[in-house]
Write a structure and sequence with these properties.
3 domains, Arc Repressor Mutant, subunit A, two-stranded antiparallel sheet, alpha/beta, D-Maltodextrin-Binding Protein, domain 2, 10 helices, elongated, nine-stranded mixed sheet
């Protein structure tokens, strides 16, 4: 049995022993698929399937063993072919990375610029959405790597994560705002305030709502947006406050905006999330290793051809 025939066998099992559906997906005729099964069983002198009224019902013990081993071989072969295709194109390829705009501005501008400029043969497709929306796209396979926040709702038996950055949320306001007089804020302090915050496509939106619910401290007026730089301009009016990750302060110019810590605040833990697989492409491994080295080991990005040689 060659790899193509093994793929046929695995596909039959994955399609609940429905030969018609399997043949359609494999783009071969159903009679050809039936002949393949019978020829293999007759040649080897074994039965792979239990049958009922001429139809395939389930696997025999021999069939179960072949399926378990065959599935591993098919996945290994597909991974090998992906790597070969990448290597034959000078370590090129395409990878889709989802990054929330705030994280891209605060943490990812330099690392993405290095990845792109040092690897001209790789196409980096950037998807800028809120972490809550990117989580859905990762589950649907619409991105290869999603930069998310912890906690999230990903199933850790299906997805893996690499921790990249730890920080915390802080409150920001005009220096003349009444809350600026306090050294530290509490969640009930926001109850009577006008707060500008991220919309529901962002994970921070949901983390803040959970805190407000817990402390019965929902702001009397909330304004929603997806643009954090708009937040900074808005709080210059001396009427609004916002809650953002601490690194935002490094990007604020002038001295009219002040930062105040919040008691029992929310951690801002940034992770790179990706699907668990038996094997990863050379490009996927390179990008994940590069992100880990950059954020956790303080290393600049090395071009893929230099790293693999």
């Amino acid at each position: 049995m060659d790899i193509s025939q093994l793929r046929y066998f695995v596909a039959i099992v994955d399609n609940d022993f429905n030969l018609s559906a399997t043949a359609q997906k494999l783009h071969i005729s159903q009679p050809a698929l039936s002949r393949f099964i019978l020829n293999f069983e007759n040649t080897e002198g074994i039965d792979l399937f239990h049958r009922q009224n001429g139809r395939l019902k389930n696997l025999t013990p021999v069939g179960e063993l072949l399926y378990a081993k065959g599935l591993e071989l098919v996945e290994e072969h597909e991974g090998m072919m992906r790597n070969i295709r990448e290597l034959s194109s000078f370590y090129g390829g395409t990878i889709r990375i989802g990054v929330p705009p705030l994280i891209l501005s605060l943490l990812f501008s330099d690392v993405m610029l290095q990845l792109m400029t040092k690897n001209p043969n790789i196409k980096f497709v950037m998807i800028e959405k809120g972490a809550f929306e990117l989580e859905k796209q990762l589950m649907l396979g619409q991105v290869d790597i999603a930069i998310l926040l912890k906690p999230n709702s990903l199933n850790n038996s299906i997805f893996s994560e690499i921790h990249l950055h730890h920080d915390r949320l802080m409150s920001y306001m005009h220096i003349d705002h009444p809350l600026a007089k306090k050294d530290q804020l509490t969640w009930p302090d926001f109850r009577q305030e006008k707060v500008i915050m991220f919309d529901e496509s962002f994970m921070i939106h949901h983390l803040l709502n959970t805190k407000f619910n817990t402390h019965n401290s929902h702001p009397r007026h909330a304004i929603y947006s997806s643009s954090w730089d708009f937040f900074i301009e808005a709080i210059k009016t001396n009427d609004l406050v916002t809650i953002l990750p601490r690194p935002v302060m490094d990007f604020i110019r002038g001295d009219i905006i002040v930062e105040r810590p919040i008691e029992n605040t929310i951690n801002w833990d940034v992770v790179a999330a990706f699907s668990k697989k038996n094997s990863y492409t050379t490009l996927e491994t390179y990008v994940l290793d590069s992100l880990n080295d950059y954020f956790n080991n303080g290393q600049d990005i090395i071009a893929i051809d230099d790293k693999l040689e």
